[in-house]
User: Fold this.
Amino acid sequence: MKFASSKSILALGLILGAMAFGDCAKAQERLRVAWAGGASNATIWIVQQKGLLKKQGVNAEFISVNASPMALQAMIAGELDVIVTSVTTLVNSRLTGADVIMIASIVPTFPAHIVTQKSITEVKQLKGKTGGVGRAGTTTEIGMRLGLGRLGIDPNTDVKLVPVGATADALAALSKGIVQFSILVEPFVREAEKLGFKSLVDISALNIPFHWNAALTREATIRLKAPLITKFVRALAEAIHIFFKTDKDSTMKIISKFTRITNPDSLERTHQAFAKLLPETPTPSPEGVKTYLDYLAATRPEAAKVNPKEFVDSSFVQEVQASGLIRQLYGK
Assistant:
């Protein structure tokens, strides 16, 4: 047997190896879910902390990983059942032949802001300026480019975009004057404002369809564990309701636990940023896939030849809807 040389993959393999189970019946009782990133995963944390799968008789394993590619590789290897990540992971994997598919949308657009120096008061003043983004292909880089395009700024010719790293690095680059504008999410928008910068544009208000965070699985997993996937989507719908309707206090405590944010104002801003975006019904829309396919088509022609509907499976959300759960939660 040939083992992978990557230390990170080996480490994940050792963790996941402990999840091995004996027979098929037992396998049907367990669901293995991985996530990477920050507060956009709060609904998954709520599922875990509130025992929303456990109350349905599911023994769920929740695993934090450093990066989505690691989670994807483990899922393709059959070591995970569901991963929570962005549409970029879905599309890039499926274009290379993987049977990955989206079963639920969690954050259906960019929860980010274009933050600038206070002297910049209009979008047109960004022309000729340098902006900070994540590395090529990250959701922040894509969000900046698509956001600028919607605002009438050509991201290729009107401005200069430079990779500055993660969100904290983007804030540092802004504060040092390396860039004049950047893309930030909460609570870093609040931190930037404390340093004298301003939010020029709330990109979420542009309503660009794009699955910033979503639940993915494999078609092979669906064939084996469809009832468990339905239970997962049901738990996710309940968690979304808890997040912005019924239990704000415990939600903010959960966010604090996983992000280590302790400042009350930062927690409030983070909660508000996502509460206004979470969908009552987490339908995985093809439109949120098409946006990224269109973006990708310039460099990957095969992206223009595929049908975005083939990247999503809305049947599990539809089943949860048919059960009456959404109507029961929201009274409509």
